[in-house]
Amino acid sequence: MTDTLDDIGISTTGERLAVTATHGAAPSSDWVIVTRGLKRQYDMGGEIVRALRGVDLAIRRNEYVAIMGPSGSGKSTLMNLIGCLDTPNDGEYWLNGMLVSEMTDDALAHIRNKEIGFVFQTFNLLPRASALQNVELPLVYAGVSSDERKKRASEALDRVQLGSRMGHRPNELSGGQRQRVAIARALVNRPSILLADEPTGNLDSQTSEEIMRVFEELATQGQTVVMVTHEPDIAVHAKRIIVLRDGVIASDEKRDSYAARIGTERVH
Amino acid sequence: MPIYDAIRLALHTILTQKLKSAFTLLGVCIGVMFLISVVSIVEGMGRYMEDDLLGKLIGVNTFELRSRPNITMGDIDEATWESYRRRPRLDITEVPPVVNALPADAKWAITSEDNVQVSTATGGKPRSVRVTAIDGAYFEMKKLGVTQGRIMTPQELQRGERVVVIGTDAAKRLFPSLSPIGRDVKLGGVPYQVIGVAEPQGSALGISFDNFMIAPWHSQARRLLNSRPNIVDAVMIQSPSEMAMTETMETVRASMRALHRLRPAQKDNFSLQTADSALEFWNKIKGYLVLAGIALPAIGLVVGAIVIMNIMLVAVAERTREIGIRKALGARRRDILSQFLIEASTLGTVGSAIGVALGIGLAKAISALSPLPASVAPWSIVVGIALGAGVGIISGVYPASRASRLDPITALRQE
User: Fold this and answer.
1) Which residues of B touch A110 (CB under 8 A)?
2) Domains, chain A, ordered by start
3) Which of A266, B85, B209, B264 has a CA 20 to 30 Å removed from the CA of A203?
4) Residue at which a domain ends, from B240, B274, B308
5) Residue B57 lies in a domain
6) Which residues on A lie below 8 Å from B330 (Cβ)?
7) Could you report the predicted ipTM of this complex, rounded to two decimals?
């Protein structure tokens, strides 16, 4: 693990340790995601499965982070917690200076709407709605007026080069196009983080590269991107790679240092 | 989510699944259709019965003195029937005392009637015609005018002259292509001259009111109408107002009780019949029709509610992933709840709107193809649609609440 800041936007280990150590106080505003001792367990028919055993995570604004780990590492659980789809059993989760780990369902729904932009492996578009209507959906729940929604949604689709396909339904679009609609939808409400779960899992290698270029473009424009993946080839598009194992963070390093390391070990 | 968007979403969802939506709507649609059509028929018949039919048969502020009631059908038990048969028939000698006791502004008439075979001098088959023998202000009380010729004069009535006024239907049957005026008809072999053709009275429930003939009571025609020549079937009495009529009825009752020498404890052995009492029968039928008008739609709506609830449950199960997506994007529990509640109540409303249209169509078809009249009541349309929306909401509550409580993480994992 390195100590120096080389690319702009990657927090140093020291900084991260500092911000995750102090419980109770909100972190400063340049930290988008801070978790302190995050724990999550499930009761599976009498047996308790500890999915997360104390995760200390610190992600600064504008970072492009990949979270990796084998199955059973807890990366899906961590993603659900980061995405405010779930609440932890113990520990703190500060999102944009707000303590979301203790929020009510309704408050979390509001946070998801405003702060999180989801991109899923299986796209998760509404099949009977057009691309435009799909992208409008977060704005509907944000209470935005119909005209304003159309305007912002078409702008978002233009940004991912799908302006000409706004009226198409998902089954009339290719896999890459569907994922781009999903990305437009994720961005339409200007969220703090773009949270992608295996975004290229259902795409061929060429389309995957396409989508990765879109992510890089967005990261360059200043969007904070957190991508969960199990493929090293995809993970190395991010600038920082966190590896989870057995419910805790096993490694947290810059891309180059990770790439160099897996040249010699087998990590997935 | 604002209501307007939710309704648009509901309509969009319904329209993109036309067949399934059609099945869902069926119960509510049929229930409301029955509601509208039964109400229309009841209203139409009611209006007809109360205004047209019985008004024509008995008249406003009019009552009839008879030996027994002639407009009740159905549930008369054996004992009552026997007691009716044993009653003395009205006799012509009883008429002057009754009539003399009436107030000066009351009108009266006497009638005897029956179906009689009538033939004409020109040959041709004898035809059955309803013959009424009258005296008094009959034409005035019945508001009966003539389109050809004239009515009898009081003198002709008193002297029992052999003149008749016939209805337009009787005229057509007896004198197919001639003017009947001046020609003879034969009643019991005796010729009577036709002096007038009455205005058409129309028909009700398929029964024509125009196949009649009116003759003076004091002529021999009355012998054809009852077993004894002095029998009078009815004395019709009309008062200027409802209050006056009630009083006059009691006067007549007193006269008759005296004439029949009834002791105070004995019941009347005659009947005083008003349009209201004749209406009793109609009200009884109306009661049953209203019951049908409530029961049939109720069954339809209950079935409709169950169907909507089940289809919505299936829809929630099928759209679990969609619900998960919406929640992930920021839909709160109440957004999902209201989405499905509005979808269910929109289904109910659309179903009842179609039911209203079908009900109106059915009512009009029934009134065109059968003697039953129909008159669509606006209140039934409003009630029908409100019931549809209500049924939708009620049946949607359980499915919507299940949908709203889905965990987004599990929901997103659904195929």
Assistant:
1) 330, 332
2) 62-83+104-264 (3.40.50.300)
3) A266
4) B274
5) no
6) 109-110, 112-114, 138, 141-142
7) 0.91
Tell me: the pLDDT tens digits for B261-280?
999 998 888 988 887 666 67
Angle at A237 between CA A231 and CA A240, to 5 degrees: 95
Q: Is B332 within 8 Å of A126 when comparing Cβ atoms?
A: no
Domain end residue (candidates: B274, B306, B338): B274
Q: Do residues B249 and B294 share a domain?
A: no
Q: Is A107 on the interface with B (CB under 8 A)?
A: no
| Domain containing residue B391 | 3-52+280-412
| Domain identity same for B168 and B252 | yes
- Residue that has been written with the tokens 């203790």 in this structure: A102
**Measured between CB atoms, which of B1, B331, B412 is closest to A124?**
B412
B15 and B119, same domain (yes or no): no
Is some CB atom of chain A closer than 8 A to the CB atom of B16?
yes
DSSP string, B149-212: E-PPPHHHHHHT-SEEEE-HHHHHHHSTTS--TT-EEEETTEEEEEEEEEPP--EETTEES--E
pLDDT tens-digit map of A16-66: 888 888 888 888 888 999 999 999 999 888 899 999 999 999 999 999 999
Asked if B287 and B356 sit in the same domain, the reply is yes
SS (H, E, C) B47-59: HHHHHHHHHHHCC
Measured distance CA(A66)–CA(A150) in Å, rounded: 32
The total domain count for chain B is 2
Query: Quick check: B328 and A141 CB within 8 A?
Result: no
B13 and B99 within one domain: no
Query: Whole-model pTM?
Result: 0.71
Find the CB nearest B328 among A118, A128, A146: A118
